[in-house]
Amino acid sequence: MNLRPILDYVYILGASHSGSTLLALLLNAHPDVATIGETCPGKMGDVDTYRCSCGRVIKDCPFWAKVARRMQERHSDFRLGDFGTAFEYPANRVINRVLQCEHRGVALEWVRDTVLRWSPGWKRAQARIEARCYDLASVVLAESGKRILVDSSKVAHRLKFLWRIPEFHIRVIHLVRDGRAVALTYMRQDEFADSREPAWRRGGRGMASEATAPSLPMHTAAEEWRRCLRSEQHVLAGLPRSRWIEVRYEELCGNPEGTLERIHSFLGTKSGPVTRAFRAAENHVIGNGMRLDTTSEIALDERWRSVLTEEYVRVFDSVAGGVNRRYGYT
After folding, report:
1. E strand or H helix at 247, and its extent?
2. How many CA atoms lie within 13 A of 48 on its CB side?
3. In a domain, 1, yes or no
4. In what order do the strands lie in the sheet with 168-176?
5. CATH number, domain at 319?
6. Given Cys at both, which of 160, 175, 225, 315 links 14, Cβ 3.0 to 4.6 Å?
7. Which has the higher per-residue pLDDT, 43 or 151?
């Protein structure tokens, strides 16, 4: 008998640097909604230097100290530097590789699921990971005093596994941004996908620290974005249409009131005027470096129009132009 309460769980699905941190922060300002950004942030590195969006080093943040303590009561090996919420299985290289594959449609997902069913070790590991995901969501909601969790993890195949946790009632916000803008962030992340203040970039460690992601050539950046969108399309095709909504980054920035009203209608929460000081609400977000900015200005970032050369745009179009046009970007 299942005794765990059902949790309202909102998953932001999209390519990296499509505006998910901005959207999560805006939703967090609602009295019913909480977020920590990404619930599977990967290895954050040194927790002595990694900063929460509140500005404190994460290990010194009172909110995260409470979360860590309550999680350790349930999972003694929980650490702020590694939540253990990734759907991975390092003990078996083949199984781990299968787990990391992008979502590629019904046939290949059947193959993935078939392979995974033959691994008793993975079944046990999956149960432990699902328990951590549920407990993290439960603890964050309890500490924030809210009832809906927004997860900006974005990755399509992570959503596939979260969807199978019966105590999560998941709704999905599919966040889309012009692929040319996203490709530019993959090419030059420090300048176009991080905090406005250089001293707060690279996880709050500053520009003297190691880069958080490699710079990519345009061909590779365009392919990365195209691959993400194809994976998202595959996972959405398997979800009930009533459980997901599509939102454009450009619409969010150009008409935040109307866009958030539509999102809150989808979530069943009462919408109100968009606060122009949304960062003043208590927030403890991890993930993208813009979490460390201080301005609540909502400004459309279309720097790609002036930065990308005609040759870069031509390369992007040859790789991913068809997918971009499918979403109305011409």
Report:
1. strand 244-248
2. 0
3. no
4. 33-37, 148-154, 7-13, 168-176, 244-248
5. 3.40.50.300
6. 175
7. 151
